[in-house]
Structure formats: structure tokens, C-alpha cells
Amino acid sequence: MVTANRFHPWPCGNIVLAPMQEQALNDNAASGCRYTKVKQILIADDNPLTLAWFDEAIRRVGFTPVLAANSEQAVALAIGDAFALMLIDANMPDRSGAATLAEIRSGGGPNRQTLAVLTSADSSILRSAARDLGFADVLHKPFALEDLKAILGQAIGHDAIGGAGVCLLDEEQSRRSSGGNDAIAAALRTLFVKELDELPVEMDVMAGNADLSALRDRLHRLDASAGICGTPLLAEACRTLRKQINADAQWPARAILDFLAASEHTLAALRNSLEENAP
Predict the structure, then answer these.
(1) Taking phi first (over 0 means left), then psi (-120 to 50 degrees means alpha), and beta for anything else, what does residue 126 get?
(2) Phi and psi at residue 37, in whole multiples of 5°?
(3) Secondary structure of 144-197 in HEC code, one letter for each residue
(4) Inter-CA distances, 232 with 28, 109, 154, 195, 264, Å
């Protein structure tokens, strides 16, 4: 592991890798919002210019970039240290982005459940295709800072990157809903994890019939569960999607992809929280 006061030079052109710091984000004491303990973001790409862009852009939004010039380096870094998010190029010389993520997920390191975003020069790759490969989203090249901030906002929480938005988990709300009993709060969140894990299949069934009535009912129940379990981002996503289907009688396929991305971010945050707080 690289110590926090040293730079770790890696063979990727003139890029110098950022220090692998173990710096934590404090919980927001006033709101109980919880984002992530880790401020590091892993970027894997074989293009030195891409790495240089991410190095600057991620620093601008208050996080520490850790750069890998190929898949092998990315896997080694992911096995050795925890990250708030992983940005992985779709095509690197030694391994594809999907294969890189699969190896990280299969290992015993701290990033088995860390959200990952696919980066690609192929604009035809949709979010649904990226999700099929295990990624939460896709970021297309050439990148724009606002696109990166939007991805980080969904994955980590807008307030955590200096924006005004909604946090992933509200621990105080979860405790209030369980009468201050942490065991009950954990049990409710465990049930909610199962519910969210099954959600994409349910949505596919509803999409097959374009069943807006069933979608409204499902969103209503999800919104209630989100309130009980303290997941503000998902609650907001439920309300946003409900507004869309109330305003438009058409099946909201694109809006549902955004909603499912919020659901997946919440699911990963819940799993990490339960794992960290397990007795």
C-alpha cells in the first residue's frame, strides 16, 4: 500500500498516480446522511490523456483519483484498497472492462460491492447494456465535467461532491422508523435489500405489458419502504418517476433506466452498510 504522503509513479506516460489515501468522509451530523467512508475513486484506462483528464476533474469535485494504466494494475489496486467508485474503460489491451470488473468482484478485496461505471468511446453502448455487464452506468467519451458530476452524484451523493442534492442513506431516519432499535433497523434493511434485488425483474414484467397501473402501485410501496429504511435518494427517484407517468400516458422506458440506476446505487449502499455494521 502506498502511504498518504508519497506519490506512486506508474508507467502511464507523464501521469503520476495520486496517493492512495485512507481518508474518510464524516457523516452529516445534522441530517444523518451517510455517503461513503472513502474519498478515493479508481480510474482504469490505457490512454494517458484520459487519465490526465480524470486526474484533474476528480480533484475538482473533492475526491482523490487513483489511476491504473491497464486492467492488471486496476485489479491489483482494487484488491488492496477500498474505493468509493470505480471507473473502468470498456477496452484495455490486456483485458476488457467487463472482465476487469468480474475479476475484482470475484476477489476477496474490499470492492466486491463497490459501484462501477463503464467508460467507453462507443456511444452506442446504452446504460442497459452496461448494467448487463455488471456496471451501474456508462460514461461516454469525450467526457464532460458535468456528466462526471452527475455520475458521481448518483453513485455517491450530490452533497458529498459539493452539490445540493439528496443523500443515499439517512441513518437517523432508519433509526427513528425502528424506534431506535439498531437490530430492527438492520432487519428491515435486509428485507429491503431483497426487495430491491428483485426489482429489475419485476420492472421487466411490467414493461412487457406496459402496465402503468402496476408501476404506480409498485412505486407507492417502494416509496413507503424507502422512507422506513432511510433511503432518500430512492424515495426521490420514486416520486420523480411517479410524476413522469402521471404527466405522460406512455411507458417511460428511459426514465425507468434512471430510476433503476438510483435503485442499484441504493442497493449497493445498503449492502455495504449492513456488512460494515454486522455484529
Answers:
(1) beta
(2) -80, -15
(3) CHHHHHHHHHHHHCHHHHCCCCCCCEEHHHHHHHCCCCHHHHHHHHHHHHHHHH
(4) 14, 29, 12, 16, 13
Distance CA 49, CA 51 (A): 5
> Do residues 33 and 155 touch, judged by C-beta distance below 8 A?
no
C-alpha cell at 15: 501521469
Separation between Cα atoms, residue 227 and residue 192, nearest integer Å: 11
Local structure of 126: helix, strand or coil: coil
CB distance 38 to 44 below 8 Å: no
| 8-161 to CATH, choices 3.90.180.10, 3.40.50.2300, 3.40.640.10, 3.40.50.300 | 3.40.50.2300
Confidence at residue 156, expressed as pLDDT on a 0 to 100 scale: 64
Nearest CA-CA partner of 71 in 105, 110, 43: 43
Report d(CA 20, CA 1) in Å as an integer.
Answer: 7
At residue 116, what is the residue type? Answer: A
- The CA distance from 273 to 271, in Å, is 5
Q: Could you tell me the residue ranges of all domains in the chain?
A: 8-161, 169-276
Mean pLDDT confidence for 125-137: 89
More confident residue, 15 or 235: 235
| Residue 65, SS3 per DSSP | strand
pLDDT tens-digit readout, 219-270: 999 999 999 999 988 888 898 898 888 888 889 887 888 788 788 878 888 8
Query: Distance (Å, rounded) from C-alpha 113 to C-alpha 86?
Result: 11
Q: What is the largest CA-CA distance in the chain?
A: 57
- State pLDDT tens for residues 31-50: 445 443 457 899 999 999 99
